[in-house]
Specification:
The protein is of the alpha/beta class. The chain has 14 helices and 14 strands. This is Iron-only hydrogenase maturation protein.
């Protein structure tokens, strides 16, 4: 439960005015004192995140935000931090104090949720503080809302059931490889062990692909590139080879043409984003201006070395092919420029640490200003001159 990566959790944002009871709701759901609660409005400053298992639905990440009616210079900063969450959530809870219903405020929120295709649920809080006439009036106005008092355990338990029902109807199970290969297929995963490989473990995309294969009855053979040739000779049947993108060229020479070949990054580009968009984006590379401005976007943060794929290997590849005057800018984690119109190309990581919604929001932002975007794996396949081969397993989608 606690080791489920953030990108595989449903992100649920909690929004509302100051003192509506957002933090109390999060504490009641988790049965922990996650957020600081006070009668003073504006207690929550930066978004507070809490991962948990919402049974029987599955792993989720709750995000408690500052009141969107905050005031003053610091209040504006807190509001902006809360609004940044619009691009990161899959589902929203709009929390109202039953004694302070603000329809205009709510309408503004709903416009933002519509813009980012966010499903939502309206929660009317502090039910125990209202008289019967007020309760009846608000219930008539909000027949679909959930009414509760966070201090009453039964209310909270009923709310969890209602939330799980909403989430189960809205969210579809996603797969990385399960829809590509039938049950009983054999896939070989090529995992080079170099200085970038973490000691004692394999990296997240590899773990996630293995788990997805196990979930769908697909048989995995995990090997280093140095043992790949011998492995292929020993196996009677191989339905797909998946390699680390950095070993594309070497692996392509070893794997016979009749065996489909792709990369971890390309599979994640397909699952988390829009593979056709990344494929179309690669077509502009050779027509880029000599001083093109290129944004390198990577969602996870880590120490970099001379072998880092995003900081060094891809820029070096592009400079070898297009010239030394290319200009690169690097963004890691959730940091991402709001104005992307001045870039000639965006190169994004596979996105294993982000949700599909977060990736699609970034792609939509680029699409609005007609900035092409591609993916680490797609670009490395292009650099290894095996782009069409790496895309062959997805030819119907392209």
């Amino acid at each position: 439960m606690n080791t489920t990566p953030s990108g595989n959790r449903t992100h649920i944002g909690i929004f509302g005015k100051r003192n509506a009871g957002k933090s109390s709701l999060l504490n009641a759901i988790t049965e922990q004192k996650v957020s600081l609660v006070s009668d003073i409005g504006g207690t929550t400053t930066d978004p507070v995140k809490k991962a948990m298992e919402l049974l029987p639905y599955g792993p989720v990440l709750f995000i408690d935000t500052a009141g969107l009616d905050d005031v003053g210079v610091l209040g504006e900063l807190r509001k902006n931090r809360a609004k940044e969450m619009f691009t990161q959530i899959d589902f929203a809870l709009i929390v109202h104090d039953i004694n302070d219903i603000d329809k205009e405020f709510e309408s503004e929120l709903l416009r933002e949720f519509k813009r980012f295709s966010v499903s939502y649920m309206i929660v009317i809080n502090k039910l125990d503080s209202a008289d019967e006439e007020t309760k009846q009036q608000i219930q008539e106005t909000y027949p679909e809302a959930f009414f509760l008092s966070t201090s009453k355990r039964e209310d909270v338990l009923d709310f969890k059931k209602a939330l799980i029902d909403k989430l189960s109807k809205k969210m579809e199970e996603e797969t990385i490889i399960g829809d590509l290969l039938p049950y009983g297929s054999h896939v070989v995963l090529v995992v080079p062990i170099d200085s970038e490989a973490p000691k004692g473990r394999i990296i997240l995309p590899q773990v996630q692909l293995i788990r997805d294969a196990l979930d769908h009855g697909i048989i995995c053979h995990v090997v280093r590139d140095t043992e790949l040739s011998d492995t292929l000779e020993r196996l009677d049947k191989v339905d797909l080879v998946v390699t680390d993108s950095q070993a594309f060229q070497e692996v392509s020479k070893i794997v016979p043409e009749e065996i489909p070949l792709t990369s971890f990054s390309i599979l994640f580009a397909r699952q988390k984003g829009d593979l056709k968009t990344f494929y179309d984006g690669i077509k502009v590379i050779e027509s880029l201006p000599p001083d093109a401005r290129i944004l390198m976007a990577e969602i996870c943060t880590h120490n970099t070395s001379h072998e880092d794929i995003g900081r060094y290997k891809i820029p070096a590849l592009l400079k070898r092919n297009l010239g030394e005057s290319l200009r690169f800018e690097f963004f890691q984690g959730n940091e991402y420029p709001q104005d992307v119109s001045n870039y000639d190309l965006v190169v994004h990581c596979g996105g294993c640490m982000m949700t599909k919604k977060q990736m699609n929001n970034r792609l939509n932002l680029l699409n609005q200003v007609a900035v092409p975007v591609t993916n680490y794996g797609v670009l490395l396949a292009w650099g290894a001159r095996i782009l069409e081969r790496s895309m062959k397993p997805f030819k119907e989608e392209l």
